[in-house]
Amino acid sequence: MAEGQRNDSIATATRPFNTDAIARAVELVAAGQPVAVPTETVYGLAADARNAEAVARIYAAKGRPDFNPLIVHVPDLDAAERLGVFGAAERALAQRFWPGPLTIVVPRSADCPVASIATAGLDTIALRVPGHRAMQALLAASGAPLAAPSANASGKVSPTKAAHVLASLDGRIALVIDDGATTAGVESTIVRVKDGAIEILRPGPVTADRLAEASGLAVTGVKGSEIVAPGMLASHYAPGKPVRLGARDFAADEFAIGFGDVAGDYSLSETGDLTEAAARLFDALHAGAGSVKDRIAVAAIPNDGLGVAINDRLGRAAV
Fold first, then answer.
1. Starting at the edge strand that comes first in sequence, how are the strands of the sheet with 266-267 ordered?
2. From-to residues of CATH 3.90.870.10 in the chain
3. Crossing angle for the helix pair 274-290 and 307-317, nearest 10 degrees?
4. Per residue in 36-70, is it b (16+ CB within 10 Å) or e — as a string?
5. Which residues lie below 8 Å from residue 106, measured CB to CB, with a gap of 6+?
6. The predicted structure's pLDDT at residue 39
């Protein structure tokens, strides 16, 4: 949508990534408004994490439950250590995987300026150094730590293109910076170090094997049902239609999402490449949500490596 066109009460502008777009985004962030900006994982809805009202506008735009904390993006490890307390293990992970699609949950520092609404009142904070040029440019130009969940209505399919952002947030936010499709295609891996091990709170592009190799620590899944990090709600990424998983054939009223030798209306990867499948996952769910068919069915995805993250997102979509 061109700037000046209006849906509901907010005119949503879409601008290609350049210095002018970043300058406009900085103006909005300084005014306490969230803006949509790409990262290497998905498009994020970014606002100054120190400004409680700005963060509240993220929740309002997304309709997000206020007990689900947000990831705070910073330009580098030094900036992260001003907000959270890093031990040797957390620092080793940061040095190995930042900038990149890994979020590390650590205790808030004593003088952490991030608004408590951004961490849902928890005494921990989820931090990430993104690798995408657009988010890094906004961090540098704004000088602010940026709380930035995925730029979509809460519980809906995460956006990997600017068009996906507009599909659910048009009229709710002022600006979308368009820098093409994201590369990783699923949200960051979220971890915390607990009891001498790395606990994966949300699977993502940085796999358990890579975490173990980088740290020398055991890697486990999350235990219990407490909400300690973003993306831990059981029902998430819902496309608004029933979703059937592990399909090898499809009914006439099902939008078929294929993988490997299982063909469909949309193939995550005809060659069975999990990286390609991850990058195309949310686009496929958006296509299914927008189709005339009443249901969505998805072919089986191997549950190893990046397939763990893909199956995690599909399982939440099917709840």
1. 243-247, 295-299, 254-258, 266-267
2. 13-183
3. 20
4. bbbbbbbbbbbbbbbbeebbbbbbebbebeeebbb
5. 84, 85, 86, 87, 90, 124, 125, 127, 192
6. 97
User: Is the pLDDT confidence value at 55 over 80?
Assistant: yes
Asked if 28 and 47 count as a contact pair (C-beta separation under 8 A), the reply is no
Q: Which residue spans within 10-98 are E strands per DSSP?
A: 13-16, 35-38, 43-48, 71-73
Cα(294)–Cα(243) distance, integer angstroms: 10
Confidence of residue 6 (pLDDT cuts 50, 70, 90): very low
Gyration radius of the chain's alpha carbons: 19
pLDDT score of 69: 87
Q: What is the largest CA-CA distance in the chain?
A: 58
Please name the residues in contact with 122: beta carbons below 8 A apart, sequence gap of 6 or more.
69, 228
Q: Residue 218 and residue 5: Cα distance in Å, rounded?
A: 52
Give the Cα separation of 21 and 64 in Å (integer): 26
Tokens representing 104 are: 């590390």
**What does the block give as tokens for 242?**
């029933």
- Cα separation of 290 and 164, whole Å? 11
Q: Tokens 């769910």 map to which residue? A: 285
pLDDT at position 305 is 85
Fold of 13-183: DHBP synthase (3.90.870)
- Cβ–Cβ under 8 Å, residues 14 and 129: no
Q: Which residues contact 319 (CB under 8 A, 6 or more apart)?
A: 234, 235, 236, 238
